[in-house]
Amino acid sequence: MKSVAKLRIGCSAVLALWLAGCSSLPSDGPSAMAISSEKVETSLPIDSYLIVQLDEPVVRTVGPWRPHTFADRFAIRSGPRGQPLGIGDTLDIRILEAGDNGLFANTQTRGTQFQVQIDETGNIFVPYVGRMRAAGRSSEALRQAIQDALADKAIQPQVMLGVTGNQANAAVVVGDVAKPGKYPLNVGGTRLLDMVALAGGSRFTTYETTVTLKRKAESASILLEDLVLVPNNNVYLVPDDEILLTFAPQTYTILGSVARPSEIKFETKTVTLAEAVARGGGLNTLAADASGIFVFRFEEPHLVKAIRPDWQPKGPGKIPVVYRLNLLEPKGLFLARQMWLRDKDIVYVATAPAVEFAKFLDIVGKTTAVVRGGTGVARDIQVLNKN
């Protein structure tokens, strides 16, 4: 009877240990069941996160999506035509006359030609006219004003005007470009990629270069690659725009039951979920739950609305979303090829429930051995006391 009582005490101790420590078994991270639990979902410190099962409609919506940041923030309907002249601009002015005995014409030449720069007051000086306001006018308006001012002084004057040094209507390009500097904008409009090309282009690959555009008080950043893939991002520039190109490699993190958990750089323009798992060494065949492949991401609100029309936002900003892929289904491999990763995504491979149970049995076995060992020591002490 005493042995039975001791066995019961030992089993009770093991059960108590399990109940107290089952939530702290050694693990690579949360299980698939824990991530998908509604109770866990609503208890997060952030407002909420969505769990979305990857299927064909979802992958078609979020997989190949590219940001339209510049198109949304900086787009103008057409090129900035008729840009006004400004302080520092250099003008080339040519005045022609119909007669040989005019102010500027003689038997050798029909007129005169000279260059002038708009001074700090915004004016220029024209012979026989005097100082004229130039800053703020279009080149055509200034040309017509000079011609009208000479109408009663010269013989049927004709004025031609060109802008040779456009300092007021220019943008600045700095950072990781071959030739940083200030470059003038064309009268017909200059797009962002045109300006990057004038500066010699980026010194790094397009998918490792971030372009930041600052216009007055507003600024935004986007990959140089997305200026090519999304033509609407290649916006027209306006005077005083500032462009910064920086080297910023994209990375993702892979965790859980994989051979090599690590942070990994994008080495190509795009990385699919299948490629991401492969670069992490593949699934750990002794521990991984192939039905629990997760991608943690802060998603764009309009994409969340597209895949979950019933969802109601709880605040501004991006939405934390967890995409789940089941690789036990054959179509899961095709979906993994179509799901593109984005910068700072986290890929997590859950541990199979059987592995967690095996860990528990191992702990129970070790604990039972300790209890049995303790019972044997107590028996030896009792024998010594009797002797």
From TrEMBL:
Residues 1-26 form the signal peptide. It holds the Pfam family SLBB_2. One of its GO terms (molecular function) is polysaccharide transmembrane transporter activity. Residues 85-162 form the Polysaccharide export protein N-terminal domain. Residues 173-216 form the Soluble ligand binding domain. Keywords: Cell outer membrane, Ion transport, Lipoprotein, Membrane, Palmitate, Polysaccharide transport, Porin, Signal, Sugar transport, Transmembrane, Transmembrane beta strand, Transport. The keyword Signal applies. GO terms for biological process: monoatomic ion transport. It comes from the Bacteria. It is found in: Cell outer membrane. It is a multi-pass membrane protein. Residues 251-349 form the SLBB domain. InterPro entries: Poly_export, Poly_export_N, SLBB_dom, Soluble_ligand-bd. GO terms for cellular component: cell outer membrane; pore complex. Its main location: membrane. Belongs to the BexD/CtrA/VexA family. This is Polysaccharide export protein.
